[in-house]
Design a protein that fits this description.
Blueprint: E1 2-8, H1 13-25, E2 29-30, E3 39-48, E4 62-70, E5 76-84, H2 91-110, H3 127-135, H4 140-151, H5 155-172, E6 179-186, E7 188-189, E8 201-202, H6 206-229, E9 233-241, H7 249-263, E10 270-276, H8 283-291, E11 296-302, H9 306-312, H10 318-330, E12 335-342, H11 349-362, E13 366-371, H12 379-385, H13 394-410, E14 414-419, E15 430-434, H14 441-448, E16 452-457, E17 461-466, E18 471-476, H15 481-486, H16 488-504
Parallel strand pairs: 1-2, 1-3, 6-9, 6-16, 7-8, 9-10, 10-11, 11-12, 12-13
Antiparallel strand pairs: 3-4, 4-5, 13-15, 14-15, 17-18
């Protein structure tokens, strides 16, 4: 649907945001006065009504939403829906949800649009809602029913995230307000992949790299001091990026040494390194990870189709992925993760079938299935706009997900964490599956936001949980390398201040 103008009877940013989320979901384009349009105007009007009559006792909110479509000929079509909040919802959350659900239902029930797999669950962490309901004492079937009723979530997706949330409980209970994880960001890659929108830099020359290493050491020491000052216990260490193994061998080993000296202890649950691509791995780096007792390494082929690897700018072969995997196994790395992307340019469901056959044959411990998120910062987005690359459509991408999840079920990989992003192919999700007992503790903790994560390095984020006031605050290191190197003292101080505030609350 293309419309010339759009109006909304609210100036509140959150109302505008959730309304536009629904319009984006159903691919409504606002083309302006000059563009070719199906309609002259689309208007959304929301009114708050008294809670009465058939509405559930205890609800504090009832919202009425009207969608008006004005034709170029002056004709008008108008549709209205009403929905009440639930008694266990915060008032603000109930207003936002009911407006969104009303508008979603109008598109599906009145305008004939196909329902989306996740309904109106557009948040990054949908399992957080399920965890809240578990705390309220709801059982699995009750949660599934409520997801379908209150969020228009499909039964398929509801039956993925509900048992997943219950599966996460024992892992979340290993953490308390003194337990934290450490994230170390190495913002370098050997090359930049076509789809990438992450704040990573191509590995710089020796002089700039030496400057980065000096600043990183200072950042690590600052975090170590803050951890010790508050008597915090590190549960997990995660070295990500970028591609940490893009560092030269000496710098990579030095970095791991600094991290271990600052945070490693015998009770550490997990020590993960993102190795990413075969062209970044050397025997020296594998030896360094073994020597510093790394417990989990991520190998990220994204696809095992050679032609696709070439298109997306990856300088390796499927055979090199297998060689890297076997080298890590032979070095005694206990757990190996592998990441794949669904919806890459030119691929079909048959390609995904072939990729999953090759990956599952290697028997990794953990497989994460990512739906391609085509963001504004990626080169692929720019190329798509010039129509040089075709991506699989939503239906094909969903077929890919069905094929991939079929392999997960066949080989005993169970979903254990999930997150969503904007612009995801097929309105899908990123879902981590693993064999029983191989769950990634860090993945669960960071996605469910039950634990403080201290971020170190370029583009890293610190998320500090204030348990007393039940809130989370964040501080961000600069995404661009020049600013991070220049302002490191500022970032160390902001992180320290956040921890002081939360720990003294």
């Amino acid at each position: 649907m293309k419309v010339r103008t759009f109006t909304l009877n609210s100036k509140k940013e959150i109302i505008s945001k959730i309304t536009r989320e629904v319009l984006t979901l159903f691919k409504v384009e606002i083309v302006g006065k000059e563009g070719t349009a199906d309609l002259a105007q689309l208007s959304v009007v929301n009114h708050r009504l008294p809670v009465e009559g058939e509405l559930r006792e205890g609800a504090k909110v009832c919202m009425e939403t009207t969608l008006m479509l004005f034709g170029e000929d002056g004709g008008l079509r108008s549709f209205t829906r009403r929905e009440s909040g639930k008694e266990d919802e915060l008032e603000r959350a109930a207003v936002n949800r009911t407006i969104k659900l009303n508008l979603y239902r109008i598109f599906c029930e009145e305008l004939g649009y196909e329902p989306a797999p996740w309904g109106i669950l557009h948040g990054v962490r949908p399992t957080k809602i399920v965890h809240r309901w578990i705390e309220y004492g709801m059982d699995e079937e009750g949660i599934v029913a409520r997801l379908m009723r209150d969020f228009a979530c499909s039964e398929e997706k509801a039956r993925i995230i509900t048992p997943m949330a219950f599966r996460q409980l024992p892992f979340l209970r290993t953490s308390d307000e003194k337990t934290i994880s450490i994230y170390v960001g190495i913002p370098f890659c050997l090359t930049r992949c076509l789809y990438c929108s992450f704040p990573a830099n191509v590995l710089p020359g020796a002089k700039k790299l030496a400057e980065f290493m000096t600043v990183l050491h200072k950042d690590i020491e600052g975090a170590k001091a803050a951890v010790e000052a508050h008597g915090l216990k590190v549960q997990n260490i995660y070295v990500g990026g970028g591609t940490p193994t893009a560092l030269p061998d000496d710098e990579f080993r030095t970095m791991l040494g600094w991290v271990c000296e600052a945070f490693y202890h015998d009770g550490l649950a997990e020590f993960t390194v993102e190795a990413g691509r075969p062209d970044s791995i050397t025997p020296g780096k594998i030896a360094a990870m073994r020597d510093y007792k790394v417990t989990r390494v991520s190998v990220n082929p994204q696809t095992m189709q050679q032609r696709t690897l070439k298109v997306i700018g990856r300088q390796h072969t499927p055979e090199a992925v297998a060689e890297m995997y076997h080298a890590l196994r032979e070095a005694g790395i206990p757990e190996i993760n592998m990441d794949l992307i669904l919806g890459l340019p030119g691929e079909t469901a048959a390609d995904v079938d072939d990729t999953l056959a090759k990956v599952t044959a290697l028997q990794p411990d953990d497989i994460t299935l990512h739906a391609l998120a085509l963001k504004r910062g990626s080169r692929l987005k720019l190329i798509m706009e010039e129509r040089h690359v075709d991506l699989p459509g939503a239906e094909v991408t969903r077929q890919m997900a069905e094929v991939a999840m079929g392999y997960m079920k066949k080989y005993g990989y169970e979903p254990y964490y999930l997150y969503r992003q904007g612009y995801m192919a097929g309105d899908l999700e990123n879902i981590g599956c693993c064999r029983k007992g191989a769950e990634g503790m860090y993945n669960i903790q960071i996605m469910e936001e039950h634990q403080t994560i201290i971020g170190i390095g370029g583009a890293a984020t610190s998320k500090v949980v204030d348990f007393k006031n039940k809130r989370m605050k964040s501080s961000f290191n600069a995404k661009d390398l020049v600013t991070y190197l220049r302002d490191i003292d500022i970032y160390i101080e902001k992180r320290r201040a956040l921890l002081d505030e939360a720990c003294q609350a």
